[in-house]
Amino acid sequence: MFEHRGSSPGLYVPLQPSEGTASRTVDLRILPDGRVGLAAYTSLTSLVQNCGNGQPWGLVDEHGLAEIRESAEINVVLLDAALPLPDRRIGVASSTPGTYMTDPLR
Questions:
Q1: Among 15, 26, 20, which Cα is nearest to 67's?
Q2: Residues 24, 46, 18, CA angle at the centre, nearest 5°?
Q3: Helix, strand, coil distribution of the chain in percent, nearest 5
Q4: Based on C-alpha coordinates, what's the Rg of the chain?
Q5: Helix (H, G, I), strand (E, B), or coil: what is residue 72?
Q6: Rounded to an integer, what distance in angstroms lies between the CA atom of residue 60 and that of residue 50?
Q7: What are the pLDDT digits (tens) for 28-62?
Q8: pLDDT in tens, 89-100
Q9: Total-model pTM
Q10: Pick the residue with more confidence: 85 or 65?
Q11: Which of 55, 67, 72, 87 is most buried (most C-beta within 10 Å)?
Q12: Is 94 exposed, middle or buried (0-12, 13-18, 19+ CB in 10 A)?
């Protein structure tokens, strides 16, 4: 279970960029110790600041996060983690990236 901060109904998760398909994949991180991590952000502002303004994203609730953790065998969720500068997706004119998810809350 996670605690909601602010007015967001869930957590913003980075998605891998993809062209021309309806399905998207969460953007996982392999940590230096070999664990698999999922970055999750408590606000869209935090996601943009820490991942870049070109980062695709999705909004998940508690149940969606649990499904992602189970299906991808994630060891740790990294809340509001800053990605290294070379890993950030920069380059979209807008300061707010778009989401590819059409129904983020179930």
A1: 26
A2: 20
A3: 20, 25, 55
A4: 13
A5: helix
A6: 18
A7: 989 999 999 999 999 999 999 999 998 999 999 99
A8: 887 554 445 554
A9: 0.73
A10: 65
A11: 55
A12: exposed
